[in-house]
Known about the structure:
The chain contains 14 helices and 10 strands. By secondary structure, it is an alpha/beta fold. The strands form 2 sheets. The chain has a 5-stranded parallel β-sheet. One of its GO terms (biological process) is carbohydrate derivative metabolic process.
Amino acid sequence: MIEGKAGRNMTAEIGEQPRILAELVETRAEIAAVAEAVARRPPRFALLAARGSSDHAALYAKYLIEVLLGLPAGLVSPSTTTLYGARPDLRDVLLVSVSQSGGSPDLLEVTEAARERGALTVAVSNTPDSPLTRAAELAVPVKAGEEHAVAATKTYSATLLALYLFVDAVRGGIGTEVADIGRLAQHSLDSTEAEVARAVDRYRFADRVITTGRGYSYATALEAALKLAETSYLATRAYSGADLLHGPVAAVDEDTAVLAITSEGNGGTAMRDPLDAVAARGADVLAVGSAASAMRAAVRIELPRTAEEVAPILEILPVQRLALSLALARGFDPDNPRGLRKVTKTR
């Protein structure tokens, strides 16, 4: 195991999240003002543009928009604009660009092109004066503070909360379901330490990991796979619980570790059949979420009950700590993952 300063930044930033989330809720009025501007120009549908961890946050927002607002929503393929020059008619469309740094050239180009083609553009970023924020007509601040660890932690959870507050405000909500999110986040970190440590001992020598979830929690499964890959270099694949049963389950055996995100609600209920199937094939299942106790699993990390659409903000917290601790146990420094930089610029 690496000693000393390894993982210091990631450790600190995981611990900052309860305070950051609580403070972001206190600034809800600022986000609500952006939502009011959107509500005055009701869109026909919404598009979301993002990369990396922000892409997982955008998927979460897609579920929020479709379920809570009743609008069709889709994820943009930036290369259709940047590589192929597509310029579709986007009148009466809401484009939400999600980027922690706000500096990725492809997202900037997509946002500028969408605005030129008639879209109402909203930037969701942790960098207030970023090129992306300046390019968009409206901006939702993430307010997580500067993040030093390469692996996104506090910016991810704060982006989820910012997106929830935004969508909730568009529908006329006042953030009731997240009023106590800071306390719940602290409890989610404090109460799960022992089970995270148990999971690290059990999975530190794993070679193959599948992460899975359904509904809102599918975004958490994708982010979990990314965190494990970039910090512990694990060969990790993420699947929707439904897609897992369509073919990938054939590759599951007793050498497969399955990290399942299972919170109470429709998505969590739908995870029972997939987990029964992988457990029957000998997979070692780790269930994380407020419904973990009801799942067929070898290890369970239970979290507080919340509205289903809020659960991903808490689900990711013990998963981040799991990724951090697994990296250290496997002899890696998660603050310095090989081949990665904090800001990745793509086109």
